[in-house]
Write the structure tokens for this entry.
Amino acid sequence: MTRIIIADDHPIVREGLKKILEKTNDILVAGEAGTGEELLGLVRESDCDIVLLDITMPGRGGLEILEQLRAEKPGVKVLVLSVHPEEYYAVRVLKAGASGYLNKEKAPAELIKAIRKVALGGKYVSPALAEMLAFELETGRDRTPHELLSNREFQVMCLIASGKTVSQVAAELSLSVRTISTYRSRILEKMKMKSNAELTRYAIKNQLVD
């Protein structure tokens, strides 16, 4: 029996995922979390095999939670779920240690397939993503501007692009305003941009923010 913890800040999404998984006889939902901190607490206390993780969790983002899970519980596999297109997030989360990436628009049968593959120690990527990765290796494609950012810089960029001020980002990430301002400067420099407005236009165009 594969024990699953569902981590998503939307109760209706968690409920939908539970209903899908309840129809199987080899997958058990062992818990659910609405924030990253709730998830970490559950994983520390329970014996689970896989975490279904929404990459855009509130507070500490999914990428940061993923990295902490990999550090604290390397035996627990993480399958990332997201509304964002694969080409913009999948490579980043796979490099951060996820065992797979699945767009929430995929059919329920694909979710079950992904969980079973990850449970057996495999990596799950869709055929389209596998083809894209193979093409990139073959052509040596130049990286897009946001791929130059560290995971923390990427998180800060997405928060700023979603309309939050530097002070609001600092409060959400429990960091100082000065630290966030430093991140913002690095992000603008790396992406060759001059303002928050440019960051926002870029993030919306590339579907990095909801």
Notes: The chain has a mean pLDDT of 88. Residues 60 and 174 are 9 Å apart (CA to CA).
